[in-house]
Amino acid sequence: MPGERPLLANRASDELSNGRDLAEEDALLTGQPTQRDGPRTWKFWRELGLFVWAVLATTLVIILAVIYQKSQDPKHTSPHPNGKRNLIFMVSDGMGPTSLSLTRSFMQYQNGEPWSRQLVIDQHMIGQSRTRSSSSLVTDSAAGATAFSCASKSYNGAISVTPDHEPCGTVLEAAKKAGYMTGLVVTTRITDATPACFAAHVNMRSEEDRIAEQMVGDYPLGRVVDLMLGGGRCHFLANTTEGSCRADDKDVISLAKSNGFNYISDRKAFDDLKGGKALEFPMLGLFSPTDIPYEIDRRNENDIYPSLDEMAEAALVALSEATKDSEKGFFLMIEGSRIDHAGHHNDPAAQVHEVLAYDKAFSTVLEFLKNDPTEGIMVSTSDHETGGLATARQLHATYPEYLWYPGALANATHSAERLDLEYKDYLETSHPSTSDKAEFVRKSISEGLGIKDFAQEEVDKLLTEPDTALYQYADMISRRSQTGWSTHGHSGADVNIYSSDPKAALALVGNHENTEVGDFLRNYLGVDVDAITEELKQKGASLNVQAADGSEVSWMGPIPEDGQRLDGQTHLASYSGDFRKRHLVHGRGCDCEH
Ligand SMILES: *[C@@H]1O[C@H](CO)[C@@H](O)[C@H](O)[C@H]1NC(C)=O
Ligand SMILES: *[C@@H]1O[C@H](CO)[C@@H](O)[C@H](O)[C@H]1NC(C)=O
């Protein structure tokens, strides 16, 4: 538009100089009368009009050009040719639409809010994601996160590998290659499926020792993650060290340090990061041996573990500062990891606090995007639903009433997981008498679950079947709140997609396949993920390692025994009358395989 200005000005001066003497032109320009006598001609007035018109038109064009430029959001006219951008991808693991209904009603009950009050996340819903994997209509978190990281479907258990066990490049790896900074923030083990899928490639998700090595850079691409905050320390410690859960004596903390990582492992060191302002890259922060405790328990142990929101904020502050003079921004994945675990445990009290913690981190990300000068977006979704959660439950054979009671969730002060751990610990260390045991159980129910009307059968069952205590505690809360569950595993429900910017995330508005979320991530950053896939294949081609049994396998580890059938539409497992075959095996609902 500014280009039109000289064009108009030239035309005006051309017309003016056409067939007229210089004195007259001078007079017009300076406003002084000419020395020539005689009446002013029609030609004079015509040319004066033309000149005035030209000046006015030129001025108008300048004004319009300035207004036009001003109206452009400075964030969208980045000085960088490729457009500097930040992408924050949030994953609410195992959170289906009913988790929101449950948590919203709980929040309203607890805070005395009207029924119209929404969660923050409610106000940003843009669409839904379909979640099936290549091997099942019900995905796991590994295949779910591979759909995000690689934008392709794979089998349950796959950590960014294809159904034929080739590595697939991830959006984080491609972002790093393109000059972005990268980060992962979780409340579970950093080696768990969702974070692993962004910076590791293994054929079986259970290989968390191998995942730990890869995530600190011991794999074909070297170090690709600049920041990791979460739990899962035990997979980084040599089996000769206390607190290790590794099968071998590799010291992955030392490996990380030799690749440049700064390593921290406790609350004090986290506080020393000063909310991210004093964080030095690359950073590995592992604040718990395995998972960080559920928020319902952690809130009373705030001096030991940082919250999801605190970790997310520190990551945002540090990444923003570190990229402020860079051509590229950052890619950060933040996971509310344990919404899923509360679903596996069928523990509605633990779940509502996990979702509220996620909602808080969600608000922090929105606030960051509002204030940060760099263009950016947040997209949030789930990998799948967990538990087949229903905000209703039929307790008796008679036709049920239509209701559920959030009050029973508000009275619980601990998760079922914590009460189970305390009970098992008590049994192991105290070898109590029967009456002491009964007293302990009654106290855990009345104080831990806030349940005063417990029945003798409920106490007796905890005494005689301590192995299933986790599920029993959770069931006591679920029955009293009339919360329904259809499984201790995942379900095939569609999950919601949220974004800070529905316009920029237009491609995700409506109902989409989960791989389209993956497509969006790479497209938003404008990175070449296919080139990473090629690089992984080339550099990894002759890179074999030893499996646990001593045999030689690819760097992605052994292939699951049923791995070959886990491919494509036609090979879905088919019905085999399983409902009659298996007996319910209770136990710790949730360790590694979900
Ligand atoms: C520790 O790891 C080494 C191999 O790295 C193995 O030989 C040893 O058996 C392991 N020890 C334990 C207690 O698992
Ligand atoms: C919650 O605790 C209060 C106070 O002990 C009690 O009056 C109420 O009945 C409890 N609510 C539920 C649903 O158990």
Automatic annotation (TrEMBL):
Keywords: Hydrolase, Magnesium, Membrane, Metal-binding, Phosphoprotein, Transmembrane, Transmembrane helix, Zinc. Its EC number is 3.1.3.1. Residues 12-22 have a biased composition (Basic and acidic residues). The active site is at S141 (phosphoserine intermediate). Mg(2+) binds at D93, D192, T194, E335, H344. GO terms for molecular function: alkaline phosphatase activity; metal ion binding. Its cofactor is Zn(2+); Mg(2+). The chain crosses the membrane at residues 48-68. Binds 2 Zn(2+) ions. Binds 1 Mg(2+) ion. GO terms for cellular component: fungal-type vacuole membrane. It catalyses: a phosphate monoester + H2O = an alcohol + phosphate. It is an enzyme of class 3 (hydrolase). PANTHER family: ALKALINE PHOSPHATASE. This is Alkaline phosphatase.
